Amino acid sequence: MIxxxxxxxxxxxxxxxxxYSCKRCGDLLDVEYDYEALAERLxxxxxxxxxxxxxxxxxxxxxxxxxxxxxxKEGGTGLHQCSRLSNLLGVKRLYVKNEGENPTGSFKDRGMxxxxxxxxxxxxxxxxxxxxxxxxxxxxxxxxxxxLRCIVLIPSGKTxxxxxxxxxxxxxxxxxxxxxxxxxxxxxxxxxxxxxEVYLLNSINPYRLEGQKSLAYEICDQLNGKAxxxxxxxxxxxxxISAVWKGLTEFHRLGLIDDLPRMVGIQAxxxxxxxRAIKLGSDVVTPVERPETxxxxxxxxxxxxxxxxVRALRESSGVAETVTDEEILDAQRMLARCEGLFVEPxxxxxxxxxxxxxxxxxxxxxxxxxxxxxxxxxxDPDIVMKMCGRPLEADAEVGSIEKLLGLTQAFR
Length: 412
Ligand code: AN7
Hints:
Layout: E1 2-6, E2 12-14, E3 29-33, H1 35-43, E4 79-81, H2 83-89, E5 93-98, H3 108-121, E6 126-130, H4 134-146, E7 149-155, H5 161-169, E8 173-177, H6 181-194, E9 198-200, H7 206-212, H8 214-222, E10 230-234, H9 239-253, E11 262-268, H10 273-279, H11 306-315, E12 319-323, H12 325-339, H13 345-359, E13 368-373, H14 381-388, H15 398-405
Parallel strand pairs: 5-13, 6-7, 6-9, 7-8, 10-11, 10-13, 11-12
Antiparallel strand pairs: 1-2, 1-3, 4-5
The structure holds ligand AN7.
């Protein structure tokens, strides 16, 4: 039995009701299961013999008709042990979960495979989202695969080119609004309330977050049934940290892990309403009017899932931290140069956050840490070219290149 439940007043709604917030109190919804029935179903399931992927966890997902599944082979991303970087940062064991390995290059694909499948179950024909980039790229791809009309609203000017190119080539109707992400989200919410035919797939939709929780399951399974001590994630709208925490608590409740990790949420200094509230000891998040950061993916001032994120951080005895644009870009370069992992700036903020929290003594050197790198570095090549400068240049001639590179040890 699957139902949608309000996180504040506990009001319950049917699994197939198209609803994005509680009719009674207006708050966010979560998908809930009958966990005893789920435990029983797992007994008879072959899920452990399936390859690592989102659909390995189909028993834990809110999809009834598996013949409708829209998949591009998402999940099953690498959990890379980063020994060179962990030496540099001074932690014993550091892993990076590289979500850039997903079909459209970000963790959003985990949510969209489930969300778009749900759209087919509900028999809707049009899907819509607001996006800083990755959500639109992912939704556009899954909508194409499913044969659905796809509309996306993006903020003016600041969307990374790689992401915009994806949304365009997949055939989405891309509308760039003269405004920021928070305004775009307010508009798509309004549109989906006013028009029965558009199905909203931002992270306010609890079905999308159900797909994203598979990130947590995979980390535990890749560590052989042991949760790490810390999971560090960037926070924008804060849907992902909420989904990952939900996944972890479900695995714990079902006896699939013994201990729960502490969650760490990182925000860019210029877009840090949740981190600021948590650091001040407040459970109320006040929006930032004009969010600004080089990490355009998380340039979000009014995170829709703030309440779920605050809950995840409090329940896990977690922490939140802010990092500067400079710290983010330093971390991006470090991860690429030490570990061969090229991630986008928003993703690098988890590494920048780890570095800061180790320096502050908040994270202990003995901890097992997982940083989630949420998106691929090629999403935003412009930022890298600005940081790394121009390539060297030489005449097309061996001698001048030898001189340029200092190659002096000739064979005799
Ligand atoms: C690479 O695409 O919000 O805290 O519209 O693209 O769940 O919002 C992107 C978010 C982190 C933050 N890393 O996740 C969008 C969008 C990357 C991202 C986040 C995003 P949430």
